[in-house]
Amino acid sequence: MPPLKKKKAATDKAVPIPDFYRATRSGRVRQEPARSTESVSGGSRRRAGASVNEDTQRTDTVNPDEPNGNDDSEAEASNHETGEGSNPTGLEAPAAKKRGLSKGYEIMKRTGTGGKIDGIYVMENGQSFVGPNESLLKTELGVVTRLMAPIQKYYWSKLTEADKHPLFKKLEDEFDIDTAGADARKIMEKRMKKRFINYKYAMHAHYLKDPQTARTDPPVDMNIEDWHMLCDHFESENFIKRSQINKANKSKQVYAHTSGAKSLDQRIYELEKKKKQKQQEQQPTQEERETDMEDADSVEEEPIDLLLYAKRYQRADGSWVSEEPQKNYLEMQSMWIEAKAEGKPISGRDIFEKVLKKKVKYGPKENPRSAKELQLQEELEATRAEAERKSKEFAEKIQSQEEQLKSQAEKIQLQEDKLKSQEERFDTQAEAMNQMKDAHDKLQRQVLVIARQLPHK
Fold first, then answer.
1. Where is coiled-coil annotated (predicted)?
2. CA nearest 26: which of 221, 170, 230?
3. Which of these, 259, 339, 354, 341, lies nearest to 307 by C-alpha position?
4. pTM, whole model, 2 decimals?
């Protein structure tokens, strides 16, 4: 990884919002009236051309870019209605403040003076980003994907390299990271694909609020033409069928985790960082070092993978989300203790693979297959089976024809042998007749000779 560049200090000076953040997907600047003090469902509507300071001074606006580790995609789809029984007094409660769509203002403030944001690294396994500014990159990936990826393509797989190039260029201008690197680009594209899917899901949720009037109420940052195209897509038979399949797959999820939107690799990075800081802060004395060396074989911290698993499926009070993850953790802990007692070192990853049957949710792994991929796999298997069946039938047919040809060839050979035998017999008879003729001719000549020798009367 190239040496990190020194990050320039953020300035408090108001930074004008670039046209990029005020433009709709079609490139036209959105014209909206001044924002009222009431909360707007689906995200904060900002005036075109408003400055960062002007927006952040409003008391009714929640800063969407405050680094809190939340996933931008989850924030976009977080407009849930208040549940039944949430207002037991029966009094009318004030409208709840809702986190709106992230606009990337924190990124603009950090890069407004021309610098790039550093502190982002690629995990050794090449599967994700980690670092102190990982959450900023994750949020900006969602913003850039939402505002620049052509939603008219409907599916990320249909985007061409020309469609994706502006997105990578934008991120390369903002972050000190090489988007041309194989690992970095693969991670970014994977994240963008997920954000694209989540944004489309949020648009579908907006559509489902009232399908009858949805066409007249486009979401924030989307022009009416694109929205009508999306509505047509949501009403198509293919989309409805896919939605039902995905819904059925989602219902099969055994249990959910409690670790929020932060990636597991990022949590590993933070746990290891805290562990190193703790070790540096607690400098042991010579006597403590000797004691630690004596107890090194008996006292050893369990693998960070196991600690992370426990954090992921435990609530704040220490209780487990369900019995299954607790059972898995106890089994993994028992396996680790047993291996340590036998003097056979084993990694947390190996324990995961043995206990969870390779259902590890981070690090190098096979990518989980979507409903479409599963359907394509089933179709491929069916096609392969049909091809094998036809190939087998064709081979059997060819073999049958070969046997028939062989039988016919044998019959022809028999007939040829019979004809040859008859020809030989005919030749023998002809030769015998020729011999008889020769004998007859010879006898006639002898008779003539004898007749000439007899006296004439």
1. 370-446
2. 221
3. 259
4. 0.45
